[in-house]
Structures
1.
Amino acid sequence: MNGKSNLLLDTNIVIGFLNGHKQINNFLSNQGNNYKLNVSQITRIELLGFPNITNNEEAIIKKFLVEINVYSLSEEIENKVIELRKITRLKLPDAIIVATALIHKLKLITCDEQLIKSSDFLLSTNPCNI
């Protein structure tokens, strides 16, 4: 972990960051160089799979994704997703994100209060409420 906190950004955080959301940008800026940004493969899929995405938006997203770590879906994550889906009401994309955070011991950064409430066993922060 090389001394840095590892953060897993939910899709809504990446969208907010790229759209200049003040609270999200302030939160990430206040982390300084003490963090490493990560996303789940499902976030990459969600970001690039928006209907009517423009070429410019796609280029901006791809540039952002090149600069951070994207965790691929593994069998270990898949098994954790199955376990989570059996005990929570998480939607599949959310379960993949939570499972990725749990398996890789990452702090989840999300503005989704429902996700935070339904996964109280997960270390998470909502910068939209700061």
2.
Amino acid sequence: MLLKYPELLWGLLLLIIPILIHLLQLRRFRKTAFTNVRLLEKLAVEANRSSRLKKWLLLFCRLGLIAALVVAFAQPYQAKEDAGTSREIVIYLDNSFSMQAPEGQTSLMQLAVQELLQNLPPEFECALLTNDRQFSRRSLEALREPMLNLGYTHLQPDAPALALRARNLFSGDPGVIREFWMISDFNGLDPGLIDTAGVSELHVLPLRPEVRYNLSIDTAYIRDRSAELVNLEVAVSADDPTRNQPLSLYNGDTLLAKSAPELGEDGRGMAVFSLPAGASIQGAVRVLDEGLAYDNNLYFNLNQPPKIRVYSLGPGPGDYLRRIFTEDEFDFRSSGIQEADFGNLESQHLVILNEVPDIPAPMIELLEAFIRDGGNLLIIPASDLELPDYNSLLRTTGMGIAGRVDGTNRVTGISFGHPLFRDVFEGEVANFEYPSVQSYFTLSAQGSAVLEFQNGTPFLTASGRTYLFTAALNPQNSNFRQSPLIVPTFYAIGRNSLPFPDLYYTIGQPAQLELDQRLGEDRIFRLRGPDYEFIPRQQAFARKTRLIFGEEPARDGNYTVYQDDAPGQTVSFNYPRAESRAAPPLPEFPGFVTRHPDAADLIGRYQNDTRITALWKWFVILALLFVLAEAILQKTLR
């Protein structure tokens, strides 16, 4: 038993007063004449015995009355030693997509929210921390609406970052107990890695569904194209390969096709949809299953690509370039240096310097400005080039030509991992018809090699948006024009001059989209979805605008790019699928972590630690009983 005001126990000194009265027996006697001596002796003995018992009983009642009142005013209570210490509580509520897992008629996260709201009093104060939001310390009643409206997110904080955010929500008061409650399925989150500095107690409540089944649409890509059809392949995975569901393909709200993937023993499968080539499709692949909801939709788009403008300058042969840069995808032009329309240069996406022997200084300045403004430059050197002119142009790119080497050399190396050749080859080609050159140039400084000679020196190198061949490609010097490498190499350079939007982008992963248009000052592009709109980061160039994506958008779906109020192309975004797979077993919790089997145990532990049972009422009742006992004694005993 503990006392709220122990200093009031000095009041027990008042017990001396009834004791002194009892010992001194301050009672006056009166003489009474009586004639019967024998009867008097008998009455005197009985009266003395009765009086002595009554005095002791009255003394006991009065002592008990005083003691009970003194203790009652000291306010006794029962509680743990630190029950009266102030507590600050931060609750981490995991709202990642894996907490969408069904549990009864609700989800894991909503079940945790309901139990907290039902079992904790409205005046309970805490701070709330989620994967994407945080709320400073306030009453549970004030947090009710945010908790009930809490959505899910793809963000998954790591344990150290989570601990840092939690510490920022605690006050700096050194005299409080700081409790950190973690409610999560701990899918990829290990509380053992949390730095507990500044945290007094760490409590975890692991949540896992009793039965888990999920079918996820993982990814989609274009398997092949023809003049009439585009074959879209969709990959799915399921926890139970025996429970399959059909996939539905939509263009906007219009159902185009259905297909049921065949699942293997590992739960993975594929479905193929054939789409008309050349059609603009704002697509979505959907499935209905009983598991997680966020991975039941995969959005994609097929837009009509804009024509890429390519301008070839110089006396080099250009017939093979015209055959590669066809009219359906490119707007190809060529001219000599003397007939060049330099005023039209800034509107081009790719400029090819085609075996120009010497480059005039004004042209060098124009090409340098062209590169700075986001243009792409491909340099095919002349066999008899003017070295200072070329190095003057190349100095801003970090490349330089050292000199010419006469002698046959074969092109044998392909950098399959280079971004230029991404998705160009189905596999690494080891043996092919190696092209050769009769003379080439060595470099004093080079970028990243794309194609290499057999001696390891570069045949095609890239630095930023500038590509440099190290040999002339005319028939007298090289047979590269007859090589199977020429088409994928030049086509990839042309396509990368204005990168076409991916089939879709993954939310949270850095990505870029280049638009073939430019806005004036103080004007921006917006992306609008059905119920969400955002403004991405933007970089303006002379002939295009680059949109940069990161954490935005926050929702998946098909978005339309708007220039003011004029709609443009469509861009698709999907959530990452990391949480679609079954969660690994729960981590081993270290000794400083208190694990609770359910919410009732977590809340009950808190209530027991903070419960204070007041006892002063019982002592008041005891004092009243002593008063009643004294009254009875006064009435009954003589």
3.
Amino acid sequence: MKHQLKEISSCPICEHKTFKSFIKCKDHNFSNDVFTIVECEHCSFKFTNPRPTPETIHLYYQNDNYISHTSSKKGIFNKVYHLVRQYQFGYKWNIIKKTVSNKNNLRLLDFGCGTGEFIDYCKQKNATVFGVEKDDGARSLAIKNYQLNVKKELSDFNENFDVITLWHVLEHIEDFKLLLIKLKKLLNDNGIIILGLPNHNSYDAKTYQENWVAYDVPIHLSHFTRADILKLVDELSFTSLISKPLFFDAYYISMLSAKKSGKQFLGGLKNGWLSNTKAKKSGEYSSLMYILKN
């Protein structure tokens, strides 16, 4: 049931034009179609190619179970997700407070804020918070449930921020370089951008391969590693890069990947633990938080 697709002719990072097939993955959320992730033969960046057009990509999000756009707690995976998410909010907030220069009157923008729970948590910690969310339903819930200042477009804000966060968002963006350039211009002096991204160099990605849910084709257009982010930091003139693990992602992603590949739930938990254990030495956690300093 493939809709119109577009072929990318040059690597989004280095602009070279020769690629090879890296892996083929099935879209289990909407279409059941198979999509190819290619690898740039020059810089090794991986990206989904071909991919939906900007006009058709929204069709692949039409799934009531797309967790970032729902506050549902039905089912074990949603319950686990929401339970762990509260802990993750505290973990992320503590890192923000330790890293940001302006610790008082902190202004935070969450790009792709979903239904608003993270920025509501930050608001309760006395941050002044803002959100951008394109999905009309999710944005409405954020405003209705938490009385948040959430807009549909980044251009709706004409102000600066100490922190801009993108939690599992950049991989969805067609022109991610342009977005980072725009966000950088909105930072105060010594401001930071924080990216939360899946890492296909992790143990769980290599274990589940085409069934690793964080490939999430075709809505994940790009598939980043630490090396890719370092290239962007250098090209876009950020002053430094810090990376931190998102520990619980390994368990959640492994549980869903086990379910997707027809394997046992407990096996997913075990592989999540193994992924984190191996990452203590390698640094290749299932998901990583990247802190880019202005």
